[in-house]
Amino acid sequence: MLLVYSDHYSYERVALFWMPHFRSLGVNVPVVLCANKSDPSANTSTEQVVEDEMLPVMAEFKEIDSCIRTSAREHHNINEVFFLCQKAVTDPIAPLFDSKESNLKATCVSALRRIFYLCDRDQDGYLNDKEIHDFQIKCFGKPLGDGDLYHIKQSIRKYSPDGVTDNGIRQEGFIMLNKIFAEKGRHETVWLILRTFHYTNSLSLQTSFLHPKFDVPPNTSAELSPAGYRFFVDLFLLHDKDSDGGLNNSELAALFAPTPGLPPSWLDSSFPSSTVSNEAGHITLQGWLAQWSMTTFFSPSTTLAYLAYLGFEPPSATPRASTTSALKLTKPRKRRKRATVERNVLLAYVLGGPSAGKSALLSAFLSRPFSPTYHPTIKPRTAVNSVELPGGKQCTLILEELGELEPAILENAAKLAACDILVYAYDSSDPDSFSHILALRSAYAHLDELPALYVALKADNDKTTQRSEVQPEEYTAAQGMPKPLHVSVTWGSVGELFVQIAEAAMWPAGAYPRGGEEEVDRTNLWIALGAVVAAGAAFVGIWRRLKY
């Protein structure tokens, strides 16, 4: 809105009538204050008018975006006043700068800190000359001219002597530079920087940038692509400042600085206890990649959002390239006994009665020391790690203990559809342990549709006869499945169990219970039969031509 005054009476009405009137109407648009009939030949100077008339009104009414003196008769600043109106809408100063405090607003400072983090490629706390040139090209599409970088650093030193060092521009210097732009009316420069990094007028990241379209069809899952793996590997190595192979709390805090913090799902899973860590309890590279693989499997939208926060740049520079290039979709899984699961991330539900040893199994999966103290599992618990299969192929295996939500999850078709294999675990030294598995199998008959593996835990204790209608070995034999695997988490060979779980999930031919004839895929038979019929018809046609 352009509000024009030309004399003392109309000037007084700006503060006494017009601005309060706009507020009473609920008008929330920027206002450009214009002092018209200000001929260059007038005795009063522009500086005096701005200080005596305009600044007091602007201090009282924050809606006023800018001010200018014009003369319609002399055509003085006519084009400029309409440019200010346009700029007040496209590049508003209000979200950036608090004129009363003479400072950038907190949301703007937060956005600029994130931009500094993303441009500080080596994470040394400074923007060196190369990083500044890269920033210039990215935001403005042209390199800095000779001497431009020197003048930029001099401008920062004038207001913030510590903002520039021999190593480069510090974060406070970068923020000061943008404050200078805002104070001098060059807030369109600040907006150009912000919009290059996908910020909206409310200084939030664009929804389409955080959550691009990425649909996961039924029976399909999302995984990290090679580009996604490379990004997270580079991110880990960049922030492992002490090169100890793990990210400590301060290194993790620095890594997640441009984000809202750890993903909520990580907090729910008590990260980093959900994945591999070193003796100091710091997540390792193996655990870091496994954690992101699990996050992508369960919630690809979370991974996409954090890829955006952390500055992932697609390998392709095409306009349509987005963070989705860091993910890929697996082939649809077919629930057939002879089908091979073409996935690199596998989910196994660990089922069993209380005190069967499921939690200890998850801890052993992460190479955690065995604890004899029993702690009942209330809410679901996950453990994720990489497993090396015979032949050297690597896959990520997620073991999930369902806790008190076991009945609800086993009744949830969507949850079961995501599962690759069921692990039925019982305590071989507890006579009542296997009966829980029989009760599950009886209550949820549809579990037969999933491959399964039976595991007898606590094999280091004396084996006892189960108080059930049938013994585990007899039951699995009747099902046409392998006998239960007897293992103990205290044995060094327990790692072989996880390999067998992953193998049974990827090649489930022997992990299905035997019940009825498997549906035969006759596609190839019909193709062959069609070929024979076509060949016969061609032969008959040729024979008739030769005959006649």
Report the sheet-strand fraction: 5-15%
Number of domains: 4
Q: Unreliable stretches, pLDDT < 50, 5 or more residues?
A: 516-526
CATH overall fold name of the largest domain = Rossmann fold
Total number of beta strands = 18
CATH architecture classification name of the largest domain: 3-Layer(aba) Sandwich
- Over all CA atoms, what is the radius of gyration? 34 Å
Shape field: elongated
The number of helical segments is 21
Q: Mean pLDDT score, rounded?
A: 89
Topology of this protein?
Layout (H helix, E strand, L loop, with lengths): L1 E4 L2 H17 L6 E5 L10 H15 L3 E6 L8 H13 L6 E2 L4 E2 L1 H14 L6 E2 L1 H12 L7 H12 L4 E2 L2 E3 H13 L3 H10 L10 H4 L11 E3 L1 H14 L6 E2 L1 H7 L8 H5 L14 E2 H14 L1 H11 L16 E3 L15 E7 L6 H8 L15 E8 L5 E8 L4 H5 L2 H6 L2 E7 L6 H10 L8 E6 L14 H8 L5 E2 L8 H12 L16 H25 L1
Parallel strand pairs: 1-2, 2-3, 13-15, 13-16, 16-17, 17-18
Antiparallel strand pairs: 4-5, 6-8, 7-8, 9-12, 10-11, 14-15
Describe this structure in words.
The chain is an alpha/beta fold. The protein has 4 domains: 2-90, 3-Layer(aba) Sandwich (Rossmann fold), CATH 3.40.50.300; 103-204, Recoverin, domain 1; 220-329, Recoverin, domain 1; 345-510, P-loop containing nucleotide triphosphate hydrolases (Rossmann fold, 3-Layer(aba) Sandwich). The protein contains 21 helices and 18 strands. The strands form 6 sheets. A 6-stranded mixed sheet has the order 14-15-13-16-17-18, sandwiched between helices. Strands 1-2-3 form a 3-stranded parallel sheet, with helices on both faces. Strands 6-8-7 form a 3-stranded antiparallel sheet. Residues 516-526 have low confidence and may be disordered.
